[in-house]
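Appendix B, example 12.
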Amino acid sequence: MSLTDFSEEELAVSLMQEHFQMHRKGITEALKRGHDPLSVDDVEECLIEGTAQYWPHKQSCVVTSIQDRGECRVLTIWLAAGKLDECLEIEDLLQCYAREMDCDRIEIAGRTGWQRVLQGRGYKQARVVLIKELSDG
């Protein structure tokens, strides 16, 4: 069997899954820090189904999704793992991708440190998300 036995799509999915496995721990940590109820397996499934996009770099990755909200199309930066400088390089690509996908804006819901990092790149705080965990008992 050789590489020519696979379609471009099969090769792309295989490479994504291989890179994703390298960042599985970082993605899991990002999910926990963001209080995201999904698991790393759920994220991988979203990527395979095409409802999320995977942006790899040498030692980092970013996961995005696109939603249509009324008249507004939004590219959401969902997860980031790895080195900050590489994630910021990916963010440069995301601006081009968002325009190509006719998005009206890019949003990121992250920890407060992201606000400081991204303010100089044209981002502004639009809302605050508060979470109250409801446990048994």
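The CA atoms of residues 55 and 90 lie 7 Å apart. DSSP finds five helices and four strands in the chain.
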